Amino acid sequence: MKGKAGIRVTGAAGLLSLDASQLNFISVSVNGEPAKYSFDENLHKLRVRGVPARSSLVDVEYTKQVSDDMIFGLYKSKYGKDYILATDLEPAEARTVFPCVDEPAFKAVFRLQITTEEGLGVISNTPIVGRQEVENGRIRFTFEETPRMSTYLFFFAIGKFEETKLTADGIDVITATRPGQAKNSEVALKISAESLVEYQRYFGVPYPLKKLHIVALPEYHTGAMENWGAISSREGYALITENTSFAQKSRGAMSMVHEVAHQWFGDLVTMKWWDDLWLNESFATFMSYMMTQRLRPDWGMWGIFLRDEGFRALNLDALSTTHPVQGHVKSVEESSHTFDAISYGKGACVLRMLESYVGEESFKEGVSDYLKKFSFSNASGKDLWQSLGKASGLPVVRVAREWLTRPGYPLIEARANKGRIVLTQSPFRLLGGKASGLWPVPINLRADGKEMSVFLDRRSAEVDASASSELILNLGRKGFYVTLYDEPGYERIAANFSRMGSNDRAGILFDLYLLLQAGLVEPELFVRFVSLCGANPDAITTQIVCEQLMELTAIANGSPILRKIGPGFYPPLLEAFGEDTRPGEPPFVGATREYLTSQYASLDEGYAEKMSARFEHFSRLDPNLKAAAAVGYAVTNGARAEKPLQNLAKSLQGEVDRAKVYQALCSFRNPKLVEHTLELGISGQVSRSDSAYPLIYSAFNPAARDVLWRWLTRRYDTLREMYGGSQQFYLYMGYVIPLCGVEREAEVRRFLSGKRLKEGGSSVTRILELLHINARLRRRLLLPEN
Ligand SMILES: [Zn+2]
């Protein structure tokens, strides 16, 4: 690629230092005169001398080699023999495409021209305003000037596109896909357009651009990215149809709603520095659930919020390696470590708690005030708390500060005692150890049918209320804490379980799982409540328990106490939810069915055989049953199923269905076959978007534990290179190693101690801590019953 960057500079006086990397410079001039410059590839700096203090124009001519291996920066997103050339620049890859000051607070106006071969489409942040034929039949496209924006949000893509368009409130919303895929982008298109309209109303600030693209990229290394006016996404999120299973459809749709929220929160108003990245992400995460719930009330989004955001954040934030949501970030490299469940999930949970604390109206008013005040500019968390405080008249700054600038969260112990409820808080850590501090905790509770709010900001408080038949804290699960009841407390909850709300039940199971991991409750208590879930069919709680059981099976299969769970859980729930969609049922029931059927097919051979019979009609199958049919087919047929499944994975165009086939290819009882799947994932024969599926799915197959660990040790460096040393790699390792390493903690520790690389930050320590917690839990669960 040949590039020419003209940079208008004011007040540089002498030396101008620009961020630049992986570029080859041809010439640099200042106001038309050749200038002296130097380039330091190690420091990523292009230094231009003799820049006058007054306004000057610095022109830089350069070339760039686009690598075949990269999957971010400026990269080739491949499909078949073709590719789309696209950018993915967060946090600091803009400097690999053009010289710039690559920091979020240095906003600039961009005027982009792209010259390319005829027959190719081009997409960028703003609409095309000019198309001109130049030498050799090439075409020069000119894009409309952008508003002031940060470099990491800049985007362009060149390739063959098929587009579908909708107009919403006068704004063009357009999906762009590779040829032949436009028909699959309708769900993403519709929900993006609807959310754009709703956000304009909610924020009270018009969408600042003329169009919004959703660009589906065949190879993509994360989920999606909020480039201003041109969201990019993996196909698995953007190419979803009404016939996609609900779990994937809701995930994809919500990811679009998340990126649309960023068009205001992140793009129009941007964090000053990466230490406030959480503000972007927590907010977009929280908003995406709130907005999707508004647009699709029957999707049950707050239940999904608990399943996907709440628990993971509670889990990681109870480690000694946790970090405050609002951390101190010294360098751009460090910023990438903060892209985790704490920035996204805990931040979103705290925002939900704050919304519940200040009330929906004041929250909306405060957000709108903040967006208006800082449009086209930068702001920090404090600015948002001030706006929320002003709108509500409540001490939001203090509550937000305590929750966001400190790591961790409290354990609230609750007991009823002679007409009084005693609440006590202490810091919660999965491995115990020293931690101190008090949180200001807004607590909603119900005691003997009466709901009340308590603001606990001391160690302990007593509430005058009788709780002789019922005491439940964290109503609706809006607080970010874990509750431990005393023995009579759990008896009362068990007696009331069938009458409790869905989020409250899910919350009890969440807390019990964390308390089990921490060794604060006996496995028998957890198992008792899992059985209660078996007897009380509830869609979201069932999904959450399925995830817990999947993890426990991976950690300690064969445990005597776990063996007791299966029969009391899966069969009654399969009976209750059935295997086929029932007319009028809420869509999230379909997701529950997918969880139950695919998981039970991997655990029970009889059931696997039953589901295997459905595999023959895979393409026409109810989308929520596809995973179970494929898993059942693999478990039942073993080696005979391998080739047909591999061929199916290669022939399927849709990523969502391919993922289900990988799940099956990882569920073989014969570990050798699982190893073939792991190799296939990195063979270059399948889309690079798919490479993580074999890794994650095989980690949940206890039969593949040894093979997966040995394979990982051999392929660790290859995998790391595949992800270009990005945080995505450590994210995957954080899922996989704490499961497959559970029997060989010391060996894993030795192996990883030789792999502490700078880009990993505290990730390795975190992985080892998760592993230690799982290994300890395994030992407890494997104890013979007395
Ligand atoms: Zn985001």
In short:
This protein is an alpha+beta fold and 786 residues long. The termini are far apart.
Helix proportion range: 40-55%
Largest sheet: 5 strands, mixed
- Bound molecule types: zinc ion
Secondary structural class: alpha+beta
How far do the termini sit from each other?
Answer: 70 Å
Q: What characteristic shape results from the CA principal axes?
A: globular
Strand-residue proportion? 15-25%
- Count of DSSP E strands? 28
Task: Determine Rg (CA atoms, Å).
Answer: 27 Å
Number of helices: 26
Going across the major beta sheet, what is the strand order? 15-16-17-19-18
- Runs with pLDDT <50, length 5+? none
Mean pLDDT: 93
Topology overview:
Layout: E1 2-9, E2 14-19, E3 24-30, E4 33-34, E5 37-40, E6 45-51, E7 56-63, E8 73-79, E9 82-88, E10 113-116, E11 121-124, E12 128-133, E13 139-143, E14 156-159, E15 162-168, E16 171-177, H1 186-203, E17 211-217, E18 224-225, E19 230-234, H2 235-238, H3 246-262, E20 269-271, H4 277-295, H5 301-316, H6 332-335, H7 341-358, H8 360-373, E21 377-379, H9 381-392, H10 396-404, E22 410-417, E23 420-427, E24 441-447, E25 450-456, E26 460-464, E27 471-473, E28 482-485, H11 487-496, H12 502-517, H13 523-535, H14 539-556, H15 560-577, H16 588-603, H17 605-612, H18 626-637, H19 639-651, H20 655-665, H21 671-681, H22 692-699, H23 705-722, H24 727-740, H25 745-753, H26 763-782
The structure holds zinc ion.
